[in-house]
Amino acid sequence: MPTFNRSAFLVESIESLLVQTHPIHKIIVINDGSTDGTLEVLKAYEGRVDVISKPNGGKAAALNMALQLVPEGLVWIFDDDDLALPDGLETLMTLLSRNPGANMAYGRHERFKVDADGTVRILGDGYWRECESDEFLAATLEDMFAHQPGMIVRKELYDIVGPFDETLVRSQDYDMLIRLARVATPVSTEAYIFRQRIHDGVRGTQGKPVSAEAMSSSWALFDKIIFRNIHLELKLSEYLGKGKKVHNRATKRHALIRRSAVMARKKLWSHAMDDLRNAAATSDEPLTHSEITALRRALASKYGCEEVLQDPKLVDELCQLAMSSATGSQIVASLARGLRWRVRSALFSENRWNSVRYFLLMSKLAKASSMFAKRYQPEMAASMKPFQKVDRFK
């Protein structure tokens, strides 16, 4: 457990670990240069918790120090502001014992907040994605849904992938999760493992603090840094799932579309557009259900997609793609349909005007797609209607 100026939450987090129905062999707390009385709080746990203090260097540096102290076995990285459910570890240990081929187990979480008067409010489930083991990497590339407090990992996996990236002030856990996903054989459960606390405390390091207001934009910034490297490092086939290969035009196009959707969600649109153009040129066969689903999710990033509203050049490129070929037309039509969710959700946001802007963008992209269909393939025109009922989660 790395900690930095979390004395207000630390006791609850540690206590939630001490009362686990499956006992923990050793609890290590790395005090990362706290200045708020954290060490005084930790004195109460002498003999039950190993405490090591170091100068402030960030969460990644603290975790790297802790991992050096664990020669083997299973590692459960837990945050200093979250709460483990009493049977969380037992659930994960049972999962691994029933799946001897797995080397990583993870489960769900729910979010909570404590109001000023002490009232605890459960805010609902954290983002979750059901997927098979061989799809875990591909699903994780879209978004993070397996969190460190909700997973246990065999130490040898951390040894294989190497240390946490200490240059990342935020998203260190996401970067590590992707590296683990590339080599792991995970197993999952629908059971809840922990509760994630939502609060307004400062994140980051002493030298590079991140306020609660800047939390989302900071995540988006560091995700972009991570995924620029991922675009260079990952093989195209890895976007299809573990053990799958790009062996013909169909699988190449599928992989390109999946990668483009990932890059779009991370706001790396130059990479996304390159892949979309290549996908359109790879095969003129109708898009598969899986390809359409990936495209509809491309504009569903938790960080929003206002950059599309603000970049007329990008919109022009998408319209040009729609007019370039039958496949390009289908690609852009699928992206347009994915915007329906943005139209609806913006209606309930602080900036309701965005609902109109998303609607106009959706209509423009759908029109560009239908123009190609009407001109060259009239039989396709009916399938380009943007308002037919769709399920973006299928």
Describe this protein's structure:
The protein is an alpha/beta fold. It folds into two domains: 220 residues, Spore Coat Polysaccharide Biosynthesis Protein SpsA, Chain A (Alpha-Beta Complex), CATH 3.90.550.10; 150 residues. Helix content is 46%, strand content 13%. The protein contains 16 helices and eleven strands. The strands form three sheets. Strands 4, 5, 6, 7, 8 and 9 form a six-stranded mixed sheet that branches. A three-stranded parallel sheet has the order 1-2-3. It has a two-stranded antiparallel ribbon with strand order 10-11. The radius of gyration is 23 Å and the shape is globular. The two termini are 37 Å apart. The C terminus is likely disordered.
Q: How many independent structural domains? A: 2
What is the CA-CA span between the terminal residues? 37 Å
Main sheet overview = 6 strands, mixed
Count of helix runs: 16
CATH H-level superfamily title of the largest domain: Spore Coat Polysaccharide Biosynthesis Protein SpsA, Chain A
Can you tell me the CATH architecture of the largest domain? Alpha-Beta Complex
- In N-to-C order, the SSE pattern is EHEHEHEEHEEHEHHEEEHHHHHHHHH
Helix/sheet category:
alpha/beta
Q: Which term fits the overall shape?
A: globular
* CATH class descriptor of the largest domain: Alpha Beta
Can you tell me the residue ranges where pLDDT is under 50 for at least 5 consecutive residues?
386-394
Mean pLDDT: 93
Estimate the strand proportion: 5-15%
Helix-residue proportion: 40-55%
